[in-house]
Amino acid sequence: MGDGSSIYGYQESGLGAVSNPDTSGFISCATTGCTTVHKPNAASSKINYVHIVGMYLGATGANSKVVDLTSIGHSIIESNNLTLGTGGTSFGIFGDTSTGGFDGTNTLIRHNNIGLNSSGDACVSLAGVFNAVVIEQNVCTLAPAASLGYVFKKDSSGNYPDNDEIYGNDCETSSTAFGQVCYDIIGALSITFGPNNRCEKVYNCLEFPSDGSANGIHVLDPYLSISNTAQVLPNEPATATVAIDNNGHNWLPSMHYGMNDLGGDNLIGNSGFEG
Q: Are 146 and 114 a contacting pair, CB within 8 Å?
């Protein structure tokens, strides 16, 4: 792949969705631990303006990646169906600026369907300089085991994702399991979640940093189902600077931060509220 590369299809629903499927728009790598779409020699240079739209993309086996955004920026990943390999520790959309140190700024990840299969899998995992990234209206189905939805963390040089926006995404599972986290903010700077990010039937909806090094995390008007085991995964020591604002009616006893709607019907009687 180079600058301006495009992969376009119209088979995002996947093979077998109809009785006589058209296989155009389907790409899968076949070797265990493979990566389906990536930039070759990511450590040596960066590319921009990549478009991956309307595809059904799959990978094979453990430790595989469907789309690797390392050393790719200013790009669009939209309306794709991403199927991970089985065996564990695989990724739907991955990026880590530890390789090469090139930023992944100004990328749009929108309206993709990502299904996990095994323990250790993650739908989206971005580490390092992925700044001004928008993640919008994606569906992440967690594996019925310890697995992660949308992950943000620092790279090996200590760089965090910065000024990103995540809104209107869905995260759910067919079977709740210990270790599931939908929105896993291991580390980020000035990142905004909301509005209307959804968690359903998962073990933990949100996890905030425990090292106190990332600041400016805002969670706005999320949908927190009572089917979740916990809304916020407890972390010690104290987390970084976090604000959870809610303008709706879905306050729950495990939600401890509030900046508005102090007179809401469902808040006055919430004995677990702190703010």
A: no
